[in-house]
UniProtKB/TrEMBL annotation:
<keyword id="KW-0808">Transferase</keyword>
<dbReference type="GO" id="GO:0005886">
    <property type="term" value="C:plasma membrane"/>
</dbReference>
<protein>
    <recommendedName>
        <fullName>Prolipoprotein diacylglyceryl transferase</fullName>
    </recommendedName>
</protein>
<feature type="transmembrane region" description="Helical">
    <location>
        <begin position="227"/>
        <end position="250"/>
    </location>
</feature>
<feature type="transmembrane region" description="Helical">
    <location>
        <begin position="115"/>
        <end position="140"/>
    </location>
</feature>
<feature type="transmembrane region" description="Helical">
    <location>
        <begin position="160"/>
        <end position="179"/>
    </location>
</feature>
<dbReference type="GO" id="GO:0008961">
    <property type="term" value="F:phosphatidylglycerol-prolipoprotein diacylglyceryl transferase activity"/>
</dbReference>
<dbReference type="InterPro" id="IPR001640">
    <property type="entry name" value="Lgt"/>
</dbReference>
<keyword id="KW-1003">Cell membrane</keyword>
<dbReference type="Pfam" id="PF01790">
    <property type="entry name" value="LGT"/>
</dbReference>
<feature type="transmembrane region" description="Helical">
    <location>
        <begin position="13"/>
        <end position="32"/>
    </location>
</feature>
<dbReference type="GO" id="GO:0042158">
    <property type="term" value="P:lipoprotein biosynthetic process"/>
</dbReference>
<keyword id="KW-0812">Transmembrane</keyword>
<feature type="transmembrane region" description="Helical">
    <location>
        <begin position="44"/>
        <end position="67"/>
    </location>
</feature>
<comment type="similarity">
    <text>Belongs to the Lgt family.</text>
</comment>
<feature type="transmembrane region" description="Helical">
    <location>
        <begin position="200"/>
        <end position="221"/>
    </location>
</feature>
<feature type="transmembrane region" description="Helical">
    <location>
        <begin position="79"/>
        <end position="103"/>
    </location>
</feature>
């Protein structure tokens, strides 16, 4: 599509690199803005954010190497030479970045789930730029199609499903909705479960559900994908995130499973009595 967006002499600016930088800056700004509203110190936020980004990058590289080990083997040169042996794994970056943040905050007085809410908004803001980068770079390709919605990509005879553009639109709409939900989820009676104040973590776990749904659905329309025991990695991770997100929202709502079951039984009993 447009892998190089600007070239001056021998200096090239790739569309992928530029879009990712814009996405990271956008995500940092959104997360910082929300952290500022919670009176988090700028220095502590920036230290945590940039170190999370660093370890996220390390995790993304390690994840890609592990899922493409046949290409890299035990060659340290290939592992570190990013310009010649390109490749990052989104899932590895997410796990490593969030894992570091959790470790950093575990012994502090900060609300970890509130910080994860910041992360969800920040990454949600950055994600559309990542899909735009994939489209311009010709990566994250869809399956071949003969439909009118197909797009011609260089090097392919048939049209491909523009998964990147579809995910770009979906993730953009989701971010706008989730930004609004940040100010509204505390009023949701089903989430508060009778509490005076709603617990933090709703945005984080809700975002995981969205992430799982969107990536697992997108994997159905993808072309060649990384496989885990014969199943697409995006599908495996997507279903896993859906499960974690649903359980997380339920747990953070303060509900108790057996109490809810008892309540449903009592309601059902009242309905049957009323029918009689």
């Amino acid at each position: 599509m447009l892998p190089v967006i600007l070239k001056v002499g021998r200096v090239e600016i790739s569309s992928m690199g530029l879009m990712l930088v814009i996405g990271v800056l956008m995500g940092l700004f959104v997360a910082w803005k929300k952290a500022k509203e919670s009176h988090v110190e700028d220095k502590f936020f920036l230290d945590s954010a940039f170190m999370s980004l660093f370890w996220g990058l390390v995790g993304a590289r390690v994840g890609y190497i592990l899922t493409h080990f046949g290409e890299f083997g035990f060659s340290l040169l290939k592992w570190l030479w990013l310009s010649n042996y390109v490749g990052l794994c989104w899932w590895g970056g997410l796990i490593a970045g969030v894992g570091y943040l959790w470790w950093r905050l575990r012994d502090s007085e900060e609300d970890v789930f509130l910080w994860l809410d910041y992360v969800s908004l920040g990454v949600a803001a950055a994600l559309p730029w990542g899909f735009l980068a994939a489209f311009l770079n010709g990566s994250y390709l869809g399956a071949e199609t003969q439909g009118w919605w197909g797009v011609n990509f260089p090097g392919y005879e048939m049209k491909l499903v523009p998964v990147q553009l579809i995910m770009l639109v979906i993730s953009s709409v989701f971010f706008l909705w989730w930004w609004r939900m940040e100010g509204e989820y505390r009023t949701l009676s089903w989430y508060r479960a009778g509490r005076v104040a709603a617990r933090t973590g709703f945005l984080w776990f809700g975002w995981l559900v969205f992430l799982g749904l969107s990536f697992s659905m997108a994997s159905l329309f993808r072309g060649e994908q990384t496989q885990v025991f014969g199943v697409a990695l995006d599908m495996v991770m997507g279903l896993l995130l859906i499960g974690i997100g649903v359980v997380g929202i339920y747990q953070r709502s303060g509900r108790r499973f057996w109490e809810d079951i008892s309540r449903l039984k009592r309601r059902k009993g009242r309905q049957e009595t009323f029918k009689k």
